[in-house]
Amino acid sequence: MTSEVFFEQIQHQLDKHLPFVAYRKPGEILVNAMLQPTDDVFTVDDYSEKGFVFAPFDSTKAAILIPLEHSKGISCQNPQIIKNNKSHTKYQALDLDREQHLVLVQKGVDAIKAGLFQKVVLSRIEKTEHTITNPIEVFNALLHHYPSAFVYCWYHPQIGFWLGATPETLIHVEGSRFKTMALAGTQKFLGTDKVVWQHKEKEEQQFVTDFIVNSLKPFANNLAISEVETIKAGNLLHLKTSISGTLNLKNTDFKQVLLALHPTPAVCGLPKEASKRFILKHEPYQREFYTGFLGELNVQLKTNRNTNRRNVENNAYASIKNVSNLFVNLRCMQILNKKTGIYVGGGITKDSNPEAEWQETVAKADVMKKVLQ
Ligand SMILES: C=C(O[C@H]1C=CC=C(C(=O)O)[C@@H]1O)C(=O)O
């Protein structure tokens, strides 16, 4: 499908107030969309469902599904840049609530020093006066600015309109094999990824690696853990450890794996329950789907077992694999009444400096602001 027709179809869906998701996986050129013909709200029950899941931070709340069987799939390769004909007004930040964030971070540091937990991720919403008249153009701009991110726009008339470009995989499962990552620690990209990391960032990232490895141990075999590396995500650098292995899902199900993982200390804290309670009590707003997860759930992938054989019989060796591609909902914004709310946070440890943590959220907000200017 041409990109013109593709974008027309999702625009039409939005005009009719019908749910859809459009997304592109990291490093790929194919942009997919799933268009739901009714405005029903489908939810995930046990994660055996097939479709696109959009799950909130608070896992006691419902995860929304655009079911494969109740939607139409469309796709296009490498979409053209849509010319910006005033999809939005000039960016104007409102309510840069620095004081409130400094107080929140200090509370987090005090709670850590009092022994309540070791790490907590504290966040804020940056509401802007920015008027978005064409969110689909913003999605198109995200696709062009962030080729190595998972870029999406998600809409349900009864729930909201979200857009994002996240660098973080929650889990990728293909058959019984899985891959995930521990992503944490942030500094601004200033032209090189050969940078020095401080103890604070190394420690906050190590908390995430240890948590993921320990959470997956009951479900996984052959765990492989990479060295820590520096990766670039937009205007930022992060520390990343890759973790992979095979899932042993005989006596358990995918839901248990997700409940064990989500929310990781990259977005919540350590220990999970104590830090989550602190977040829900002290953050002065509702995260909703920010730091939740989203992506393809139990879609089918056809693969050839023996790619060396180029004959027709090869088809006999084709196998169907169950694939899930789930990402953490970071570097995202919500559009409400044509205004934007950008969601940003950062990991707090005993060594956190409130002013530096504020600056980190300012840098993270730039990822979304870049497409709003
Ligand atoms: C919580 C966010 O980022 C997480 C992912 C990478 C680095 C992070 C950090 O350095 O604090 C956070 O753990 C966010 O972007 O809002």
From TrEMBL:
Protein name: Isochorismate synthase
Domain Chorismate-utilising enzyme C-terminal, chain residue ranges per copy: 98-364
Organism: Xanthomarina gelatinilytica
InterPro entries for the chain: ADC_synthase, Chorismate_C
